[in-house]
């Protein structure tokens, strides 16, 4: 099965510092700027090609302010105390860093049915008990819909990752968990499901789970306890032994045993707002340990104190890069 696609070039060659300055100017000019302020902005923009690129992106964002979410737009369009002003700058920087993908992603997320379902924020865990006794634990930035009918009990994983402990077997209705990639039907079991960009990951801790790909029922497989696999709409990968680290998130930890530093950073990024990047010079560094996913500052301190890397922070900690220690 092909690997999921990588990144999308979020910064498009514009330096973080230039984007931060552009955000500052955007807030300043929207907050009752004088003609002198506008002239100073022009001087700044013309003084460096990076400034021009950053301001071009800011102007594109400015054209969307009328439809930005209120928590971003209001501090910009109204005069605000310094704290709110700084908060507005940080939010705008986040949008500038991700534009246009981040803006499109926000609008897409708001249009999805899971926006009103059971969900968690970035860094949040939540356990819910359903009407049949099934317990579902949601990992960071996850969302499910629950649809119980007379014929079935359906859990739709819209985003993120869940651990499912199926309820007592007295309910004759089949329990099913679905993603865009297919259907998983457990048989009195405990299992972990994670959505990836182009596939779904399944790890079975107890019992067994039958996978039926969405577009190829003939490829259905039963995955037994102690095994994990990936599947997409047509294929189920060969199962292998389930890694114990897969469900460490339920205890607030990320377990690494010889994990590449760039892979560790990608996992940690799921639990924090902002960007966490790794310099290619240390990307393949192998790391081991138990890292708290709810405390990114502590995790970064652990990495810096144990391995030959430093953490460089930009944009008031929104953008962090792990680099070789000088």
UniProtKB/TrEMBL annotation:
<dbReference type="InterPro" id="IPR032623">
    <property type="entry name" value="FecR_N"/>
</dbReference>
<feature type="domain" description="FecR protein">
    <location>
        <begin position="118"/>
        <end position="210"/>
    </location>
</feature>
<dbReference type="Pfam" id="PF04773">
    <property type="entry name" value="FecR"/>
</dbReference>
<dbReference type="InterPro" id="IPR012373">
    <property type="entry name" value="Ferrdict_sens_TM"/>
</dbReference>
<protein>
    <submittedName>
        <fullName>DUF4880 domain-containing protein</fullName>
    </submittedName>
</protein>
<dbReference type="InterPro" id="IPR006860">
    <property type="entry name" value="FecR"/>
</dbReference>
<feature type="domain" description="FecR N-terminal">
    <location>
        <begin position="20"/>
        <end position="61"/>
    </location>
</feature>
<dbReference type="Pfam" id="PF16220">
    <property type="entry name" value="DUF4880"/>
</dbReference>
